[in-house]
Amino acid sequence: MRAHLPVLVLLGASILWGLTWIPLKSINAMGIEGIGLIFLAYGLLTAILGPVLLKQFPLWKEHRKVMLLIALFGGGANLAFTYALINGEVIRVMVLFYLLPVWGVAGGRIFLKEEIDRWRYLGVFLAISGAFIILGGFEVLDAPPSWIDLIALASGLFFAMNNLLFRAAQSIPVGSKIGSMFLGCFSLAGLFLLAGIEQFPIAITEHAWLMLVSYALFWLLLANIGSQWSVTHMEAGRSSIIIILELITAVISATLIAGETMSTIEYMGGALIVMAAFIEAFRTKDDEVPVTTIE
């Protein structure tokens, strides 16, 4: 049973991530705008993991630059992903977010000097082709993608960069890295609120507060810890395949609950992106070697 525990935990965490749009849109409908919702939710998580971050300071104090980058990219990924889910179409956002193979391969090559073989080139080609189709094909040259599309794409890029930092910073405890990611998201959301991009939520009902606190403590926290703990206890290829359940869960739930649909050609584009994710997942089974560390 213990050998299967990481798999079961990751399955549960992936389902939580795939369904996270439900509480997000419900809380948003109660009058809490996207950035304010993110600020409050990640503020609660920062308060919880803040003591861990401080306690482990001696273990990461020599790696402040890496921690700052994790706060920037990890925090930016969570901010962009959550905001896009709240304000966009769930299926479209999730599919564009799953351009991870493109960003992961490019970042691995640039920053970790990883080799790119023909399978990875194929995965990148399929992912880019899928995104091109979803964004409108050659019509994208006439009209730019929507701002939500761009935010969804950015969330995948930032998440891939954050994953590279998590992999490379092997000497930093996972708790500190997650805490830095939460703090980064909370801080970035605060900066956007101060800049006046959205108004800070003031008139929040007790029911909305209860929903927000419950989502942060019993959904978001469990999903983050569950996914991060699991991927450190299994090979990368296996975890990458399981994580695709996030996308499948989101597509099925948004179709059944929210009544969202995509055109046949858009589903074809999504299928290409899923194929790219599977190729990269199976490919990483040959990559179980130590990566370059960032010190």
Can you lay out the helices and strands and say which pair or pack?
Elements: H1 5-19, H2 21-29, H3 34-55, H4 57-60, H5 64-87, H6 90-97, H7 100-111, H8 118-134, H9 147-168, H10 174-194, H11 206-231, H12 236-243, H13 245-256, H14 264-283
Helix pairs in contact: 1-11, 1-13, 2-5, 3-10, 3-11, 5-6, 5-9, 5-10, 6-9, 6-13, 7-9, 8-14, 12-14
Features:
295 residues, mainly alpha, 14 helices, disordered C terminus
Which range best describes the helical content: under 10%, 10-25%, 25-40%, 40-55%, 55-70% or over 70%? over 70%
**What value does the average pLDDT take?**
83
Instruction: Spell out the helices and strands N to C.
Output: HHHHHHHHHHHHHH
Tell me the distance between the termini.
Answer: 36 Å
> Helix/strand/pairing class, anyone?
mainly alpha
Extended strand count: 0
- What is the CA-based Rg, rounded? 19 Å
Number of helices: 14
Principal-axes geometry comes out as globular
Give the amount of beta strand, in percent. Answer: under 5%
Please, could you describe this protein's structure?
The chain is mainly alpha-helical. It has a domain at 33-200 and 253-286. The protein is built from 14 helices and no strands. It has helices at residues 5-19, 21-29, 34-55, 57-60, 64-87, 90-97, 100-111, 118-134, 147-168, 174-194, 206-231, 236-243, 245-256, 264-283. The relative contact order is 0.22.
